[in-house]
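Response to reviewer comment R2.3. The reviewers asked that we include at least one raw input/output pair. We reproduce the pair for Dehydrogenase/reductase SDR family member 7C here without editing.
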Amino acid sequence: QTYAPKLILLDISDINCIQDVAKEILSCYGCVDILINNASMKVKGAVQSISLELDKKIMDANYFGPITLTKAILPNMISRKTGQIVLINSIQGKIGIPFRAAYAASKHAAVGFFDCLRAEMEEFNISVSTVNPTFICSYYHQPAPGNWEASIWK
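Raw output as returned:
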């Protein structure tokens, strides 16, 4: 059966709203066949110039966001013994480069989680894939001096 698309807004870095969004999706469609985690935030800067607050925001968006959404959808897939989960990650989940410590750390964590999940989901016939592309062109705004939030790549 084909369903009409439904737009559901989600800030993947807002961990508290993800569970409600997952419930809304499942109540609307009954199941999720394929979950593609493709949201991301990145920041460029020296370790000493990036605040712990920004480190946590990057980790929320790139690690806790995808795993929270995946965990919310997973019981439905397990009960049906079918599904596919895809993480669009980054080559920086495999190697680190200077001035991207928070981003690379969040991407390394995500790869670790989804690699473990892949092994655990095999018995339920659920496929888990990670895609680690090299550098891509993202939209970016030059920040005003002192405005760290504007230096985030989305």
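The chain has three helices and five strands. The radius of gyration is 17 Å. Further pairs are available on request from the corresponding author.
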